[in-house]
Design brief:
There is one protein chain. By secondary structure, this protein is of the alpha+beta class. It has 3 domains: 19-195, no CATH class; 235-308, no CATH class; 377-495, Beta Barrel (L,D-transpeptidase catalytic domain-like). The strands form 10 sheets. It has a 5-stranded mixed beta sheet, with no helix packed on it. Helix 2 (50-60) runs antiparallel to helix 3 (92-103), helix 5 crosses helix 6 (187-202) and helix 10 crosses helix 11 (338-351). It is elongated. 25% of the residues are buried.
Length: 496
């Protein structure tokens, strides 16, 4: 019995020695690899060396998503992916540091295993040691600087002593001053500043998650460092003096009103009023003021007349019968007094009298603008032998009439005219007639609208063989009403 007991004790001792030896051997092993249950950044690292873990973590990191942003003076913002600008990362320092922490706790892995085994029960969750580590950034400033040197956004508006000041004609704002000497980018200084800021920022990131920064070159000390002004030469100073004269010349604003339409005289318009030499350059006087070309003011007034004069023009008119008719000729319309308007505009420009202007007219229509008929007018539809009178767009009189006898070539002409004279109890006289009428409204030369008591019938096709000498014959009861309603100047549209 004693021998058995001694043998058992020997076995126990041997097993203990072997177990202790195994534990010591494993602990020595774990001095070079990560112990059990170690997870870094979601990667199971047990049994990995520092090198192995570093390689796995490095390959899982997306350096392209780490970006630095730069704002230029014009407000544009540009992003710099770090992997394209000479920046690399490595987890080696952080992984090595954590390995040292693990080695500083000998046999900790034994405790972790015992705890896991003692608590091993469904759902069999191991007590993993979760660890978050951050990479160290390494900057190759030579690569970074070279990349920035070639960046398109750092090669715009560069500092250059050959830049100048010039007066140029713009598309919509008259002459403008283009000063190429202001806020020029010093690329060398900008590259140096950006590189320095990136390196300083990234060196602080090894113990922290990555944070992007904005390097703003548009304000403060950064702007003073990266942007410079080129000095003015004597020639530039002379251009600046001339620009003051150009700016004063263009300081004029007048609005011409034509009904619902308007013409604005601003810097873009008066820029054309400067005298130019054979090469298209502005001619200045001894005081550096542009010389006025008065013919251009006359040309502008002629433009207003061409655009807004309506006497005799071809008009599109919607007839009461529903279709669109074209009517041209006649004395109705607006006609600008070009001489009077030229004198006004010349004087106003010289004295810089801005404001709103209704031009002076030789003749004025019922309304201004391109639609000068308005919504109060007399419509004579000679095709249907009907006359209509509209007031403010509302039809108030609708009557049959008889117009000029077409078989005898006395047909009433198609044109746009107006009521320019009214008279009661007038005798109409011609080569072989003298006819008294109670109401007479002259609209175009000897043609007028009047009553015709000698007629029993109106409308139809009477005008073709038994029409008037050219006037618009109207029933007396209608003419009595119409005469009192119609004002002088009322448009009359006559068409077939």
């Amino acid at each position: 019995m004693r021998k058995i007991l001694l043998g058992f004790i020997r076995v126990i001792c041997v097993m203990a020695v072997l177990g202790i030896g195994a534990v010591i051997a494993l602990d020595q092993y774990y001095q070079h690899v990560f112990p059990t249950f170690v997870v870094m950044n979601g990667v199971y690292c047990t049994g990995m060396t520092v090198r192995n873990a570093t390689e796995v973590l490095n390959s899982s990191y997306d350096l392209h998503s780490d970006r630095i942003t730069v704002r230029m003076l014009d407000g544009e913002i540009y992003e710099m992916p770090l992997d394209e600008y000479g920046v690399t990362i490595s987890y080696q320092p952080a992984v090595a540091e954590y390995m040292e922490q693990c080695k500083s706790r000998p046999f900790q892995w034994v405790k972790d295993c015992l705890n896991s085994w003692l608590n091993w029960s469904p759902p069999y969750i191991y007590d993993f040691q979760e660890k978050t580590v951050y990479p160290t950034y390494y900057c190759d400033t030579a690569v970074m600087a070279a990349k920035l040197e070639d960046a398109a956004w750092l090669n715009v508006n560069l500092y250059n002593t050959e830049n100048t000041v010039s007066i140029v004609r713009s598309a919509a704002a008259g002459y403008i001053l283009v000063d190429e000497t202001k806020d020029l980018l010093s690329k060398e200084d900008a590259v140096e500043l950006i590189c320095r800021k990136i390196v300083n920022h990234l060196t602080k990131m090894s113990q922290n998650p990555y944070e992007s920064i904005l390097i703003d070159l548009s304000t403060g000390a950064y702007k003073e460092t990266c942007y410079k002004n080129a000095p003015y030469t004597d020639e530039m100073k002379d251009t600046l003096a001339k620009w003051e004269g150009v700016s004063d010349f263009q300081n004029f604003h007048m609005i011409y009103q034509f009904g619902d339409c308007e013409e604005v005289i601003d810097a873009n318009v008066v820029a054309d009023w400067m005298t130019l030499d054979a090469d298209g350059n502005i001619v200045f006087d001894e005081n550096n003021l542009p010389v006025l070309d008065e013919t251009m003011i006359a040309e502008y007034v002629a433009y207003l007349s061409t655009t807004y004069n309506t006497v005799g023009i071809e008009r599109k008119f919607k007839a009461t019968r529903g279709d669109i008719v074209t009517v041209s000729g006649g004395g109705y319309g607006n006609e600008i007094d070009e001489k009077a308007e030229y004198e006004f505009l010349s004087n106003a420009f010289r004295s810089r009298e801005s404001g709103t202007r209704t031009p002076q007219y030789k003749s004025e229509a019922w309304a201004k603008g391109t639609d000068d008929i308005g919504d109060t007018y007399i419509e004579v539809d000679m095709g249907s032998q009907h006359m209509y009178y509209y007031v403010d767009g509302e039809l108030v009189i609708d009557t049959p009439v008889v117009t000029g006898n077409t078989s005898r070539r006395w047909g009433t002409p198609a044109r746009v005219c107006f009521v320019y004279f009214k008279q009661k109890n007038r005798v109409l006289r011609g080569a072989n007639y003298a006819t008294p009428v109670k109401y007479w409204m002259a609209v175009d030369g000897h043609i007028g609208i009047h009553d015709a008591t000698w007629r029993k019938d109106f409308g139809g096709e009477i005008y073709k063989t038994n029409g008037s000498h050219g006037c618009i014959n109207t029933p007396l009861e209608t003419m009595t009403e119409l005469y009192d309603m119609v004002e002088l100047g009322t448009p009359v549209i006559m068409f077939y």
